[in-house]
Amino acid sequence: MSATRYTYLGPEGTFTEAALRTLPEAATRELAPMVSVPAAFDAVRAGEAAGAFAAIENSVEGGVTATIDELTGGEPLMIYREVLLPITFALLVRPGTALSDVRTVTGHPVAQPQVRGWLRGHLPDAAWESAASNADGARLVREGKYDGAFAGAFAAATYGLEPLVTEIHDAANAVTRFVLVGRPGRPAARTGADKTSLVIWLGEDQPGALLDLLQEFAVRGVNLIQIQSRPTGEGMGKYCFAIDAEGHVAERRVSEALMGLRRICPQVRFLGSYPRAGVAQADVRPPRAGTSDADFIEAAEWLARSQDGRS
Amino acid sequence: MSATRYTYLGPEGTFTEAALRTLPEAATRELAPMVSVPAAFDAVRAGEAAGAFAAIENSVEGGVTATIDELTGGEPLMIYREVLLPITFALLVRPGTALSDVRTVTGHPVAQPQVRGWLRGHLPDAAWESAASNADGARLVREGKYDGAFAGAFAAATYGLEPLVTEIHDAANAVTRFVLVGRPGRPAARTGADKTSLVIWLGEDQPGALLDLLQEFAVRGVNLIQIQSRPTGEGMGKYCFAIDAEGHVAERRVSEALMGLRRICPQVRFLGSYPRAGVAQADVRPPRAGTSDADFIEAAEWLARSQDGRS
Amino acid sequence: MSATRYTYLGPEGTFTEAALRTLPEAATRELAPMVSVPAAFDAVRAGEAAGAFAAIENSVEGGVTATIDELTGGEPLMIYREVLLPITFALLVRPGTALSDVRTVTGHPVAQPQVRGWLRGHLPDAAWESAASNADGARLVREGKYDGAFAGAFAAATYGLEPLVTEIHDAANAVTRFVLVGRPGRPAARTGADKTSLVIWLGEDQPGALLDLLQEFAVRGVNLIQIQSRPTGEGMGKYCFAIDAEGHVAERRVSEALMGLRRICPQVRFLGSYPRAGVAQADVRPPRAGTSDADFIEAAEWLARSQDGRS
Amino acid sequence: MSATRYTYLGPEGTFTEAALRTLPEAATRELAPMVSVPAAFDAVRAGEAAGAFAAIENSVEGGVTATIDELTGGEPLMIYREVLLPITFALLVRPGTALSDVRTVTGHPVAQPQVRGWLRGHLPDAAWESAASNADGARLVREGKYDGAFAGAFAAATYGLEPLVTEIHDAANAVTRFVLVGRPGRPAARTGADKTSLVIWLGEDQPGALLDLLQEFAVRGVNLIQIQSRPTGEGMGKYCFAIDAEGHVAERRVSEALMGLRRICPQVRFLGSYPRAGVAQADVRPPRAGTSDADFIEAAEWLARSQDGRS
After folding, report:
1. Enclosing domain of residue A287
2. Does residue B161 share a domain with residue B108?
3. Global pTM value
4. The pLDDT value given to residue D234
5. Which C residues, 120 through 179, put their C-beta within 8 Å of a C-beta on chain D?
């Protein structure tokens, strides 16, 4: 039954599943691992799942283009939640293996730069080979193909392995951001610590188009969290921009900026407003002076009075 | 009866009266000359007149500060009409006077630079003395104090004089702009060739405040016609800005810009939207792409769909 | 001998002369009162005077257009000094006159708004008539034509009068700014509390031209002190802008902004860099981060290294 | 001997090698395939190669993060040339294989989206498995592991295969951009159709920092070709921007913009100015009015005259 199914980029035992399980509602959903981000998202488009979950950005590796491109192209989807998960690896081994026994290790290619420093210090002679996923690496260790796999510690139980070493990571702040997407609907409720995601296409031959785009935000006091260019696929030099901005579309400063963008850009895709993971309401900078909803309402009332001659 | 009285900066026989008489409704109004712009405007504030008429700008001399300051300070008034009048002078003399008889001439001080060139060429030996107004100069000629007065040709009849020479002016394009003001009410109807007048005060110590102000217009594609700084009277270096912008407050691009200004500026005074004198509707540049009312409506509909998940 | 002569807007006994005498070098100059600002400035242009001195701005009345227009048009001149003078009036009377004897008063028309409140409170029945200058008013009192003249207290001695009441003014902060102009030459030396004056003409039909102009300053962190539009005389709607900006042309941020303006504007007239009157060096906000001369030099060195491959 | 060696991302027979061989000087260089972009670039840093060659952007897939991150971090390198190569695939088979014999196909994962449509139409039942590179896939076909490999037609000879079908691609305009990097040195000579590459870090907590950055370009009339955000590795939400701009650092508008960026940004890395591939000099838009070198020179001369009083 689709309303209770969430798809995610599998297999089981990956960081994606671990991140998904941090969502309270995950406990009451059927969690279905899929072979690719497009497969996970298409299940939502087809009505076979209520949501799809995938990584969209890593603080070390950058944007996950498969996810961004699925949101940028194809049948529209919207983001309803985001999850931040610190990424630290465990070295998973078959029970009984000692560190000195480990001669071959495996893991997903993106894990390699994160564990390279640790390997150099602790297993300088171990040979690395890439696996299709961290979970797949764990499976290959269980099958005896490699001595150790780098994966999340939580994957040990699934694959009958033991975490020999944990908390392995090179970059102190490696974090991955995941999003839960669904078919277009009402955005998540406003919490006071929200973000709004968009994709914006610029017109042809407009040298200042990006500047104009940023001005639409700046004039309304809406700060950008991220801007990422992606090729449109129409040839070298044609880009669209995936943008995360502070605030919720229910805020006047945000909605006016969105309408401004809609007017000056050939295409704008609204990807949703949803709570910012890892940002407490108390930590949110208040809107710049003159851009709160109260300021918008006061200005509209002033204008109404002015147009009636009651200024 | 105040509803049929228009005050204007007198005396009779000035360019101001001539400009006022170009308004169709002037034929059915009692036109009351006043001794000063404040007097003319205060009569409106006191309910003793329906309108007041005064010059606000001359294409050679610049802004008429008495008029601007009356609109900037005091009890609010609004502009409902503007009139452009080309300024050319006649040399008025008592009947029978020949050019060779003219040894002394008079006129308002602002007339002098306009006729200086003509005097040098035609009456190099004539002595100039200033009068309180062009009309007053005419009166003094009638009384025999001077031989000639520079004034509008239309003033000749009023003072029993003859226009000896007409079409005297130095600057080819000398034009004066006049405004009809009244108590605050609904702005003049939108014609498609309109302007909107404002006074804006900037906050303290904001180096980029003027730039921010202009951005509020620019982002909505509203072009400025004029910007003029005036001291606020609170000390050297404190200014407000009298601004004329293209468009009517009934246009969305204009009203959104006004609300934006209201939000970021400590004070905004709306002085009205009214037809641009001397600009035919056909000559008006269409709003920049994305800033027509249709564009605003389409963007609002898109936003509503987006917030409902119908994008 | 022209090198020792300074002209000023006369007659003697005006605030202009008082302001001029605050300059140390005035003590060793021949101070020559002139009948008009153009006459004072033309004497400099003709080499008959080393400097000319005139009011350029009043904190209550605004810009003195005669002075601004002389700097904007005609043979170029430059500003080398500015002087601020608080404007307070004295009521000058013939010796022996008591306040109760004063029935008629006179003064320059711009004095009237400054003393109106005082008159209402202290001499509600006194009749006001305008004089050609405050000094001329004093002369007329001496001749017995009026009972009292509003002028600077310093004018009393010149005209054989007594200051009956002093420190009369309505606006608490009435200040007039005067400038000393000369033929173009090297600007005044940099003091650390300087300003730079310019006149800028915008091109035809450029809706965003004023914004572009301000961006040239803003990008280099140069704050504006004042911007004032003046008609170019080429017809209604054609303006140039007289601008005062913080900083000295010897500063890199200022000179780069000036060159930027020169490139984008059809005409720029440099009116000089000179010490800001009334602003101590200690009160000057330091240049925005990244806009000091040291920052410009460091960036130029970095660029040179980069272009040599030594980055 | 390092001066004649160019490293590139191998193995042999890839599009990278094909692109590298389009450079005239490649004919006289030892071309050394390396296992990774870091390996290829580190050889240059270590002085073991004069240049390294790698893809930096694909018009369908976007930026090649491995290459960008090598330029952004580590010991500085500079770009001296770029090459554009249209990407079309051939289906390589062992001699004698017919299309109907092809049951399994392989290729680099990024090839898959490019040939997916063709496969659906022509080999709907063929099973795809990914290879480490297109060249590696060809090798596996020669070894009999798969029936066909998608690779460049030029790879056929190297691996003893035949191109059964050529010109396979889904996106009509799939193009890959490659760069030749070397140790920092003098930039490539100016050709009139150049680009300049930079990496820019923004300061902390500056909401408008990206806008300020773009203004530095805009004020000098320098158009951006591309802007791409990359994580700095210091935690979620910290980005630097890899930017390609029109023009050569030897142009005044470009060098002034670079110095401006250097002043306002905590860090700027100059990656070189070099000829734009695929852009003829005749197709280059001339610099915006007021931003040519001649305009800069004229403005500097004007400033010098102004500072000498010769304006």
Report:
1. 187-311
2. yes
3. 0.92
4. 85
5. none
